[in-house]
Amino acid sequence: EALVKTINSGKTRRSTSREREMGHKEMTFMKYGNKNRR
């Protein structure tokens, strides 16, 4: 939950193209990556 919170706060605070991409990648990773890992 902490990661999601930091990503969301970063998105609202400063929406940099690079940060947004990183956040999007992490979100997708958390959604699908975890399933594949476990």
UniProtKB/TrEMBL annotation:
Polar residues composition bias: residue spans: 1-10
Chain positions covered by the region annotation Disordered: 1-26
Regions of compositional bias (Basic and acidic residues) in chain numbering: 16-26
Name used for this protein in its record: Uncharacterized protein
